[in-house]
Design a protein that fits this description.
Distance between the termini: 155 Å
Radius of gyration: 49 Å
Structural class: mainly alpha
Number of strands: 2
Helix content: 55-70%
Order of helices and strands: HHHHHHHHHHHHHHHHHHEEHHHHH
Strand order of the largest sheet: 1-2
Length: 515
């Protein structure tokens, strides 16, 4: 009757049979080959569980089994524990549920070896925690003592990889809007930039993961995968399952461009983002919905209801539009709709407001530019009519007002046959200029002061002797007009350059009295 404590070697698979030894270091190859040689010996002679543990403890002292080379070999300790249990070793699970602690406390019988193995296993656990945080962690040296600092090259490499993926947008978290293989492709490009081998790619793979995806990697992938390719496949299988594929399909079927516009995104930007989302998530839907026709349907459902999209969508069935063609026609229709809306708004605004002088093109004279202002108050444009009557120039604003003294539009104040009333003329002139150019509140105040001064002078004139002759009265009126003219000149000098020059010229032309 066979001993139940003995194992049947033929029923157990070869130790780490899937590992590619060409990619391993010499010490890692020696570890795998030593266990396989022990398997060959066990085929010739039956070993008990205790004998298997003693043979492994003799082959691999604590400094070797928990050294840096074996520690960087993925799943080496986990595979060794499974191999020992398969050969009847029956290792007792440590309370921390750590494989390295289970090996350290159950494999070695000697007390010193057990203490050394426990210390090295604790260092490995601490180093693994720091490594999961995104940086390179120091591993115990082959002498059993902890290194003071990691290798400068490895430390710099780990830091550079972590910095390349420090942004949260560069990490895969497992959300519906993320495609796992896009993040893998970007990581592969960075790995080629730094010339990483397969083991280093697997070692630094945690930098492209975050959230639920990183927790799944630490719990289900890091301790079981033996290569970078296997780890990628395990994550792809988890985050591209049938359930997830149906969720992505339902997400794209219910995707609406209007939801983006409610968040403040413009129509053009929302259409572009919809196109990119469908393009990125289409490979994640079930195979039955990965054709171009389904992408056309996703895009149609996203934009249906928009007035500008009606005509392009109506040509899907009649013209057999592809996904790219439909997006191009939708983009062109949106651009045309935007131009038409702007044109209608411009036409409505032009028809609703009254016609102003800015809507009428100015008169262009010889030597002027396209947007030049016409020359005003120029003698070159003042022509003399037959009979000796002067016609005001085209740019003379006084030709519109006429005479400020008698309100006769046929002549100006200079040619007025009526006696000059300086106060009335000044009031009318200032009122005219106030209407012509608004925004000068000082004109009304100056007019009030001038009128007050003239009224005071008239009252004073009434109290004078009645013996004053007509010449004296004429001289007094001339003095009043001169003072009024000087006041007006000082007022116009405070304005801007061009308008002030016009006021000066017109004032001089109207107030100069001919004898």
């Amino acid at each position: 009757m066979p001993d139940p404590t003995r194992s049947t070697v033929d029923a157990v698979a070869t130790f780490m049979g899937g590992a590619d030894t060409e990619l391993l270091s010499s010490e890692q190859k020696g570890f795998i080959c030593s266990v396989r040689m022990l398997e060959n010996e066990m085929r010739e002679a039956t070993f008990s569980g205790e004998q298997v543990k003693a043979s492994v403890a003799e082959l691999f002292p604590p400094a070797v089994l928990f050294g840096p080379e074996i520690a960087t070999l993925p799943c080496a300790h986990r595979e060794l524990r499974k191999w020992l249990d398969g050969h009847g070793a029956n290792l007792q699970q440590h309370s921390s549920h750590r494989v390295v602690m289970t090996l350290a406390t159950s494999l070695y019988v000697d007390t010193e070896d057990r203490v050394a193995a426990t210390q090295l296993a604790s260092d490995l656990i601490a180093a693994g925690r720091r490594l999961s945080g995104g940086g390179a962690a120091p591993l115990p040296s082959s002498s059993g003592q902890r290194d003071e600092a990691p290798s400068t090259t490895n430390d710099r490499l780990a830091h550079n990889i972590a910095m390349r993926f420090r942004d949260g947008s560069c990490k895969f978290s497992g959300n519906l809007g993320e495609a796992w293989m896009e993040y893998v492709a970007e990581y592969q490009q960075v790995a080629r930039d730094y010339d990483l081998n397969q083991m280093q790619r697997f070692q630094y793979m945690h930098n492209i993961l975050s959230g639920d995806a990183k927790r799944y990697y630490l719990d289900k992938v890091q301790g079981y995968a033996t290569s970078f390719t296997q780890a990628v496949d395990m994550i792809s299988t988890e985050y591209n399952s049938i359930v997830r594929q149906n969720r992505v399909k339902n997400y794209l079927s219910s995707y609406r461009m209007s939801s983006l516009m409610r968040d403040g995104v413009s129509e053009a930007a929302a259409l572009e983002q919809t196109y990119k989302t469908i393009t990125k998530l289409a490979p994640q839907v079930p195979r039955s919905h990965q054709g171009d026709a389904h992408k056309v349907e996703f895009l149609r459902n996203a934009v249906v209801g928009s007035p500008w999209a009606t005509e392009p969508l109506s040509r899907i069935a009649t013209h057999g539009l592809t996904f790219q063609q439909l997006y191009g026609e939708l983009e062109a229709a949106l651009h045309l709709h935007k131009e038409a809306r702007l044109a209608v708004a411009h036409a409505n605004s032009s028809s609703s407001r009254p016609l102003t002088t800015q809507d009428v093109p100015g008169i262009l004279f010889s030597g002027q530019g396209r947007y030049a202002r016409p020359v005003t108050n120029s003698s070159a444009f003042t022509n003399k009519r037959p009979g000796g009557v002067y016609r005001a120039g085209r740019g003379n604003p006084l030709a519109i007002m006429g005479c400020f003294n008698c309100d006769d539009p046929a002549h100006t104040m200079k040619d007025c046959p009526q006696p000059i009333n300086a106060v009335r003329a000044a009031e009318r002139k200032l009122d005219y200029y106030a209407k012509k150019k608004t925004g000068k509140p000082a004109a009304s105040a100056i007019l009030f002061q001038l009128c007050s001064q003239v009224d005071a002078m008239e009252i004073a004139g009434e109290n004078t002797s009645a013996s004053d002759d007509a010449g004296t009265t004429h001289d007094a009126n001339a003095d009043d007009e001169r003072r009024l003219f000087e006041a007006l000149m000082s007022t116009s000098a405070g304005g801007d350059g061009s308008d002030a020059a016009v006021v000066d010229t017109e004032a001089k032309a109207d107030f100069v009295m001919e004898d």
